[in-house]
Write a structure and sequence with these properties.
single chain; alpha/beta; Rossmann fold; six-stranded mixed β-sheet; 4 helices
Length: about 140
Amino acid sequence: MADVLAIVGSVEFVCPAGEAIARQLVVEELTTRRPDKVVSGGAAGVDTIADEEAAKVDVPFAAFPPKERRWDGPNGFKARNIVLSNACTRALRIVCAKSRTYGSGWTCDRAERQGKPVRRIVIHPDGTWTDSGWPTTVPDQQLPL
């Protein structure tokens, strides 16, 4: 089975070093675990960083931007996030601690309910970050979506 990594997260960072930290974390993930493909939502911030850095290390990348700027509906953010969670075999979320939206969190929550490993990183305004790490075990069965 191909290793398809969803990389999702904040579109902007409040701490001055936030974007640089996010880029460093994406590069580390791409070079140490080398996925077969990266998927993301096509937004600014972490999604764009994932696209740029995947290209630098020759990892295929696919973006799934929503067709409409609304949560519900067949072409909105929720539908796009379902596509992302279905397409990936694991997910990485990198967010600013001051983020006001939860779309990437919703995507990762759904991926977990599908039995997929999820790593969550929160970058704080002081330039530090917390990292859940990759889970050491994955549930044997999928949970209800």
